[in-house]
Amino acid sequence: MATKLNLDKLDLQIIQEMLQNADTPYAELGKKLFVSGGTIHVRIKKLEEFGIVKGKKLNVNLKQLGYDITAFVGIFLEKSSLYDSVAKELEKIPEIVRLNYTTGNYSMYIEIVCKDINQLRYVLHDELQKIKGIERTETLISLEESFNRSVLVAKDVS
Q: Which InterPro entries does the entry mention (predicted)?
């Protein structure tokens, strides 16, 4: 899209509120922000059309569902030009929930969620190691997630 979207204070407040609870009814959000529910609906639709809002996610406690292992893996590529092909292969592995192209020691950094250590071993040994272009990996297992939050976007507008 060639058109640039100019976000105002209300747009940023809507985003911030929806980051806290995407289930908030538009009418309730409108009351909180002193506008109509219809205004909220129109603004969210506009934010979706410009790709700022990309759907809504359910926040699930994965531990309660039996996913006990979260690991972060730094990936060293043979050549940085292999990023796109390796990323395409990594996307096929359902246990990988996040992929970042990074600077620093690693070419790529992924987050893996598994039910147990055997599943993690399978992903690391049988899945990652067969991808052409990966030179080596370094794995860190998370012992605890102390917090997980979104950026405070509404605070940036005066």
A: AsnC-type_HTH_dom, Dimeric_a/b-barrel, Tscrpt_reg_AsnC-like, Tscrpt_reg_AsnC/Lrp_C, WH-like_DNA-bd_sf, WH_DNA-bd_sf
